[in-house]
Amino acid sequence: MVEIRLENLRKTFGDIVATDMVNMTLKEGELSTLLGPSGCGKTTLLRLIAGFYIPDSGRVFFDDRDVTLEPPHKRNTGMCFQNYALWPHLTMFDNVAYGLKIKRVQGRKYTKPAIAKRVNLALELVRLGGLGGRHIHQLSGGQQQRVALARALVIEPDVLLLDEPLSNLDAKLRVEMREEIIRIQKEMSITTVYVTHDQVEALSISDRVAVMDVGYVQQFDTPRKIYADPQTIFVADFIGRCTFVQGKIETVGEFIEVRLPDGQFLSGLSTIDNYPFEVGEDVKCAIRPENLMLKSAGSQDNELAGTVTKTTYVGTALEVFFDVGGTEAQARLDADIGLNPGDDLKLYASRSEVMVLPLGGVESLRKVPGHPMASAEMPTRASSSA
Amino acid sequence: MGVEPELISDTVQDNLTRALLSLPATLGLWAVGKITGFVEWIKGRVLGFADFFADPGTKIRTGWSKFRQEMDALSTAQLVAVLFTFTLFLILPLLSVVLFSLENFPYHFVSLFQDSNFWPWQYNNQGELISYVRLELILTGGDLVVLQGWDFGAVINSIYMAIIVTVFSVLIGVFFAFIVARYDFPGKRIIRTVLIFPILATPFVGAIGIKYFLGRAGFINNLLYTTLHVIPFRIELQGIAAIIFIQSLSFFSLVYLNAYSSFMGIDPSLEEQAENLGATGSKLFRSVTLPLAMPGIQAGAILTFILSIEDLGTPIVYFEHQQAQKTLAYQVFASIATQSGKIDPAGPAIGIILLIFALTGFLAIRKYASLRSYEGGTKGGQWNPRLRPLSNRAVILLYLMLIPLLFFALIPQISVIILSFTESWSTNAILPDVLTLDNYNILWAYPDVTQSIQYTLIYGLIATFIIVLLGTSAAYIIARRDIPGKTLLDLLVTSPIALPGIVIATGYFVLFYNTPIFPPEGPWFLITMSYAVRKFPFTVRAAYAGLQSTPVVLEEASMNLGASKNQTFTKITMPLIGVSVLAGSLLSFVYSVSEVSTSLILGSVGRQQAPMTFWCNEILNATGEYGGPYNAATLGVLMMAMQMTVITITNKILGARSSAMTGI
Fold first, then answer.
1. What is the pTM of this model?
2. A-side interface with B, Cβ within 8 Å?
3. In sequence order, which residues have a C-beta less than 8 Å from that of residue B192 and are 6 or more positions away?
């Protein structure tokens, strides 16, 4: 088990910046997820940790060991590839045994019985005991995935790397395998990095989630904090649903008061600790649909008025879309209320549920003293043109 | 002016008229497009090159650090070995030919064009233009009609000959490929295998058979003229007409293979979509199927063009007819085929002209056909290609068409086999009157010939061994290592398929004659190396294709589990691509055995060490107990037997990926 520390990582492919200014520490025994839309750089980051890419700049540490330039086979990571990458010319047993046959412990190698014992244990761990003689093409997708997992685990890696391991499975199997992975990961308490684009998956299995977009780590936090205190507009939008209305700051105090273009007021809280908001600054107020109420819970609550444009009945609730000065807002209301397009609507939101976010995206976090982004070195002109 | 009508007539006549009227413009635009595209491409390459010289320091530094990152000790050693071999046995010999021909520049080139064998328009002493162009296609004498070609001198002869061969090959090849790829009928398996044979029986062997089997007292004449009296005279092909006939029958299978795998590689849903929109029959073929298969067909066509120009085997068999000597390949051969090792400086100059054609063609293949056609082909297994069963009537019709075509396609093989068993063949008999096994005595009656069989096998095996070692290395570096200049490396190792063997052999003479590796009377080492270099592309392409269809993650998974690059290469990569490499190396071996041009030229200075093809030609032109076509045919049969065994095995292994056989 090791702690993985990434410092100022940057990787480009030709003119395309795949990932940049990555500073994060993945703690021992934790399961961290890299979450983001396709092309956000999450797989690049995983492959930087595995050693398949060498960063243009920045360093990768396993504990205090600098492994930035170390080739993949010297890092002792166990990786599960997206399409499993099982070798078709070997049996299931031989696939799993491969790493042990290669492995040397202080210059000595494992005996055949020792290998067999460990392989069988690993196969039992993934609930494939007794099937070792099968060929890869005789296995179902779920079984292949578990072989890949066993193959990665059997070498007792310091780090387990999972690249969208469940993406090829059907919904039911995916949930089962997800539970399996968490069980094994906790049992072995192994530092794990898990790549996915499925936000539900990420929130449900992770100790911490790194939300990525266009190569930047937007936020690296516990699932709860990611949902409740998104640090950028992208995170608020990508995780769960959100209504965004733009306005100008009128006052900054315990709460931040924002004037909307159509004259309404919203009062809310900054989700970013110590962000230096200024009066007159353009910001966005983000409100989760479930936090918009029909009735006011207190006199301090925000009012938000608009015209209903569309309603969708989803069984447990009625999703209401309404227009607030040109922006579409959404709310999740009681399924029984009768609302029709064209109706005027007034909703209430508690001040603590309105999230005030700066417009600048992840770059604006550099203004926060002590933030990991603030300590990241800006790429120099020379290296950005290279 | 009125508005353009939205609808126009659709009668056959109107459509034809419109098509004919717009033909010049269409063709012109097509040609202009292709040519400018090609020029732009070359320009891009050259500019890329110039870009390097604009700032060599940085480029070399970043290139070097990239190189260090990508390469470990083993890959570096592999790369060095490949580059060393190719530099010494391909680049330097070619350069030496160029330099040799530039001696007294431009004297040799000017004098070439003052030779009427070479260029038909000459000025005589009075300064008058005299044309040596001969346009008689038909010569008659008694009951004999001889068909020959036009004669424009060696340069133009070679070009127009190659163009006609290419056209015939494309027509026959695409026809067969489409039938086999899209229809299901009884006997298809056999036909598929049979169609691949011509590619291996090089025109050289086929020419021996056809020259005598279809000669003036051969099978067809005695059947149709003497026996059935269907035609009023004997027909004989000679000169360029004969070369065109023989080469077309041999090279069409190149186009066939490429077109076949292109047709198989077309995603059926693309054709189904077109049908869904109302296109059927020939409209569907012209608008969707053919364009999608075009890269493969073009590759086959250009390759045919190159091989036709550089083919020495056919002209050499027909050398008695003056036209056959007026081809570029024969001219080079004639200028250096001496036992003294001396070279007439005119030879290299002709060689340069050949080389220019070959290189242009080769670059055109890489530009237009690229490798995409091949990669598409490998995916063939992922879908079920559109196969339609044929009704009984259609099958009969098909066979009525196929049988004559197949008969002609197999004439080279059939005729060589029959000749090899012939003891006597009277002038008017359809088939030989007396058959015998005695012809095969030559294989052991004459020590040099017996030896040549062993030598051929040994040369082929050593060459194949070198090819497998270096070819796999080169393919691995090209497919898996991102180093600067790897496109150039790819070009280098596939180029031998297009480079004329005669020019390479000339280079060996210029560069190595009378050195320890090429003592007088001792060409064995260079014969082997010429096989190794010339037949390299087949293995390198097959290995590359194998690597392409093997996902990189399979190797990454191995490294992730602690295996080094070398361990990964031996334990994962090699087992996975082994079959492809095996298939490729079998091809390399087969083509080594049947290699003609370097064998003939290098063999001529060391007859004791010469390979089979050399002796095949010697016997053909020899007189006496063990001379003449019947005995020469036995060597041909032996070669063909080896080739067919190997090709059947390879075909089994490669399956739908058969275009790997052409090595492009």
1. 0.76
2. 50-52, 54, 71-74, 76-79, 81-83, 85-89, 98-99, 102-103, 151-152, 155, 161, 386
3. B180, B651
